[in-house]
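In the current project phase, we have settled on a layout for protein records. One protein thus recorded is set out beneath this paragraph:
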Amino acid sequence: MNTKNVAWFCLRSKLKNEHVAAAHLRKMDDVHVFLPRVRFKRATRQGSVWVKEALFPGYLFARFDWQTSFRQVQYASGVRGIVHFGKYWPIIPEKSIEELRQVVGTAELHTISQTFSPGDAVRIADGALRGLHAVFSRVMPGRDRVAVLMELLGQQTMIELEAATIVREGNERMTIFQDQGNSLP
């Protein structure tokens, strides 16, 4: 392999099938794959569950010799194409991949902790109040209990819940950058 032509490229895949493309690419000789993922709690109809998603939905990274492996990578199962702009095929700097690896770790998986601050918007994911929105107030003394503020019958009411029944409101995936003290790329 000529190392002069080896570089990191961004690849497109079908949404929610990034892992399929990564699995096929990992079987190829001289192709290195990096699929950063996050693990976080999400509210579902069945309650709060841990989910894994690609940090960049629909995208993953591959390092290969573009002269010898371009077509093989371009048409690999699960790959929709190599990101390009007309005739320009951008290369991802090695430093950018290393910075991402520092955040997500060698397992390519970063678990987003469920730490809350007073005033955080949360959603109740389990129990009789499932699906309702609230504002995190504080951690209660005792075992895994929290206090949240809810609007009930036109008044703000403090309610005590199990900590495991609430999830952060909004796009959980974006909190990886907030947890690391970084801004979005």
Remarks:
- Helices lie at 18-26, 66-74, 94-104, 175-179.
- The radius of gyration is 21 Å.
- The chain has two domains: 3-111, 121-179.
